[in-house]
Amino acid sequence: MDPTRSFQGLLLTLQRFWAERGCVVLQPYDMEVGAGTFHPATTLRALGPKPWRAAYVQPSRRPKDGRYGENPNRLQHYYQFQVILKPSPPDLQQLYLDSLKAIGVDLGLHDVRFVEDDWESPTLGAWGLGWECWCDGMEVSQFTYFQQVAGVECAPVAGELTYGLERLAMYVQGVENVYDLNFNGLDGEDRISYGDVFLQAEQEYSRHNFEHANTEMLFRHFTDAEIECKALLAAGEPAAGANQPRHELALPAYDQCIKASHIFNLLDARGVISVTERQSYILRVRELSKACGAAWLKTAGGGAI
Amino acid sequence: MPDLLLELFSEEIPARMQRKAADDLKKLVTDALVERGLVYEGAKAFATPRRLALHIAGLPVRGRDVREERKGPRVGAPDAAVQGFLKAAGLNSLDQATIVSDPKKGDSYVAIIEKPGQETVAAIAEIVPAVIRSFPWPKSMRWGKASAAGASLRWVRPLHSILCTFGAETEDTEIVPFEVDGIVSGNVTYGHRFHAPAPITVKRLEDYVASLEKAKVVLDADRRKEIILTDARNLAFAQGLDLVEDEGLLEEVAGLVEWPVVLMGSFEERFLDIPGEAIRATIRANQKCFVLRDPATGDLANRFILVSNLVASDGGVAITAGNGRVVRARLSDAAYFWQTDRGSLPDLDTFRDSAEKLGLDLAKPLDQRMAKLDKLGVVFHAKLGTQGERVQRIAALARELAPIVGADPDKAERAARLAKADLPTEMVGEFPELQGLMGRKYAELQGEDVSVAAAVEEHYKPVGPSDRVPNDPVSVAVALADKLDTLVGFWAIDEKPTGSKDPYALRRAALGVIRLVVENGVRLGLTQVANDADLLSFFHDRLKVMLRDQGARHDLVDAVLGEGASANDDLLLITRRVAALGRFLDTEDGKNLLAGYKRAANILKAEEKKDGEGAFAAAPDLHLIAEAGLIEEKALAVALAQATPKAEAAVTAEDYEGAMAALAEIRPAVDAFFDKVTVNDPDPALRANRLKLLNQLRQATRAVADFDRIAG
């Protein structure tokens, strides 16, 4: 599949590229998330001493970015391609540039730059240093060395690459409007565009996000997720004096944290959260993610002995 | 004399940190060298996105030998004294000490400690790793395998290699050997990431700079800036356009490239409907590109200047096209904001109560935004309530101030109610620096009065000492109300500026009030609107600072304020009085009168010590003067009797020039008095009377200013 001809070709090329470099190629997490970072394969696996290399596509939802399908560049649902390498390899920048070459970016023709961008996710209690990666002035990826996740210092540090797939595809296909992207690489009647696949969804979800989402229900669901997360965290705690003090429900608890985060984003898009309340909601989600991170460190995956 | 060349090669350093990092590197390394007695002739530091470099010229090969003599106990002293001496001097036995003879004190031990000067290379090998480990980056990070351990090296981004050579100009240089967290120093660097990634072996600064240049790296940031500016101006000129110069952007862009290649891109003319400030803000903030202006109209052109880091194989066609695409996307966003902000909000009904409370017309877009701001309960400061409450207070105060500044009260109130309405707009949300300006545009579009619209923007002014002061009365009323509300509020909750800390920019607000009042000739009794003695004295302090910054004599402020500082709440009058006094003191009359005053005051002080405070407070006996006084004494009495009421009346009438003129009339009499009259006459009655006369002189000047507080 030619990565410059189709959206899926780009995606498959990236998967192959990182698979060949030792990454576990995962499928998207089956929940609504705001970014690929929320996938437990990144958030939780970034914690603890165990080496980890993974790559996956993650559909990401940002309710506020909906434009009813009218903006050629903004979507409330889009794809991120996520790579996490722990510990960060010394040639991570070069690996990244090689991946750009693989998807058809000629580095003798295009101006690729690493522009400062300190990444922070207040809801995940996470931060890192890195860059926006620019290709001819367009941000095509985020490059981050995780320093802290879920309130825990990363040791060792993981390197995270996040590719904005639609933008990259628009770039390599030379398309000005995201809905004009060729999705399947075919021509004529057989051609399927990004708009064919997603335009209606963008229109409907924009209506939902801004006008129809039932805020009363969402507030309730937020609280439910919060309560369930805490309950699971408590239930999974190792018994006092246990031989192997392992947490047994870190992953299901974290699912509830993801849920709360997405509901918060929906409420925010509906404009029903005031500025002062906003901060307290973010803190509530952060408390959940921190507790989940702490629980994860008490599991085998988190390196507990 | 040998030179040192150091390069720390890393992944991309944030542009905003490069210059300071280069300065820090220079300071830390040279300070450490000097501390070890290794002085140098010159040092220069450099930064590019991927490297910090330092060159230190004219270092010695080794430090000076140090010879120290340490006196010990006399020969045959008790063992405890000998042991103590050996320990302190670092000797193993007395064999290592020397015996010196003194004819009076006899023989005693001396330890001669000789420390050979440290090899400079060894010193550098100690200094540089220490500097790297404790480098003051504003934010630093860990990376890679080593970060599994707690105390791994931190750097701004992963550090890859260290070049460190030392040697004289004519000789081969040597590598200064050290290691920092597994990175071994060497003599290798790398060129441009894409054009010349292969290793380059380096001897010293000359070939380092030349090799880098060949490898498409301009080491010196100032040279990169020069190249960018020259090329940008030339490209603009070729199109008949002017570059909108921007030093901050230039500095940043020079920190994003090692080899600047300047190109020009364009966008559709239809985007020029968006306010120019917004176009510039988005192109600058998001794309780090410069905008261009049509010199004929002064309006922005549909072109922009971008600075790339690549000599592209197609001459930059693809790069320009790519940047153009992003700029267009950004402008589409701005156009969307511009359009959305002028339309109705979808959830209008939810802020009807706010609209009613604030007297807003929900048929108008900007009014809707203000209602929304109130409804959302956006907090201005936890202890000072919401933005909505603040706007209510500012509107009431602006209305109150309107007659004082000559503004229509309705317009002032309306402008205040819309002043913060642009905060929840899409455009200001995206570009906070456009607050006020966008509010004005939206106010104009919904047909607000010209002064009201102007005040929405200008009420933030003056922002700094060099910013323009608004002069439309409506703007002045709202600007004063905004700043006074801030000051009174923060004083009420006791969050005053302390030392260098002024997080709410209260000094700036107070200076703004002063400039608004003074430059617009506004008569405003501050205590009417801000009844707080401490705040008033804060204003007096800011006034002094302002006058001092303007090169005026701030001691004159104290002189004019005198004892009754708290009563002086009219900043305009204080300023005028200070100016009149300053002019007067520049004249011969003024200088001499001040000299005469000081003389009178000194004499009075000395004599009051003898006779007691207030001994000469009574009016002089005019009969005595008439009968026994000298002619000059009589003349002074007459002059004072005439001038004092004149000066007082003039001050009351706020005619400060007149008051000074009245004082000037006394001056010849004062001069003549001191010339001919002996104050301390042997006759106690005459003496007392003359002192009373001098006291009257003191009183006369006090009507105008406290001359004691005037320096010189």
TrEMBL record, chain A:
Coiled-coil stretches: none
Identify the domain of life: Bacteria
Keywords of this protein's UniProt record, alphabetized? Answer: Aminoacyl-tRNA synthetase, ATP-binding, Cytoplasm, Ligase, Nucleotide-binding, Protein biosynthesis
Compartments it resides in: Cytoplasm
Catalyzed reactions: tRNA(Gly) + glycine + ATP = glycyl-tRNA(Gly) + AMP + diphosphate
UniProt-listed Enzyme Commission number(s): 6.1.1.14
- Where does the sequence pass through the membrane? none
Q: Give the primary localization class.
A: cytoplasm
InterPro entries in the record, alphabetically?
aa-tRNA-synth_II/BPL/LPL, Gly-tRNA-synth_heterodimer, Gly-tRNA_ligase_asu
Give, as one word, the top-level EC class: ligase
Summary of subunit composition and partner proteins: Tetramer of two alpha and two beta subunits.
Q: Which PANTHER family match?
A: GLYCINE--TRNA LIGASE, CHLOROPLASTIC_MITOCHONDRIAL 2 (PTHR30075:SF2), GLYCYL-TRNA SYNTHETASE (PTHR30075)
NCBIfam families the UniProt entry points to: glyQ, PRK09348.1
Q: Could you say which protein family the record assigns here?
A: Belongs to the class-II aminoacyl-tRNA synthetase family.
State the protein's name: Glycine--tRNA ligase alpha subunit
Tell me which species this is from.
Bosea robiniae
Q: Which gene name does the record give?
A: glyQ
Automatic annotation (TrEMBL), chain B:
Q: Where in the cell is it found?
A: Cytoplasm
Indicate yes or no for the key word Transmembrane helix: no
Q: What is its EC number?
A: 6.1.1.14
Main subcellular location of this protein, as a coarse class? cytoplasm
Q: Which residues form the DALR anticodon binding domain?
A: 595-699
Among InterPro entries, the record links this protein to: DALR_anticod-bd, Gly-tRNA-synth_bsu, Gly-tRNA-synth_heterodimer
Q: Which reaction does it catalyse?
A: tRNA(Gly) + glycine + ATP = glycyl-tRNA(Gly) + AMP + diphosphate
Alphabetic keyword roster: Aminoacyl-tRNA synthetase, ATP-binding, Cytoplasm, Ligase, Nucleotide-binding, Protein biosynthesis
* The keyword Protein biosynthesis is assigned to this record: yes
The entry sums up its family as follows:
Belongs to the class-II aminoacyl-tRNA synthetase family.
Identify this protein by name.
Answer: Glycine--tRNA ligase beta subunit
Q: Which organism is it from?
A: Bosea robiniae
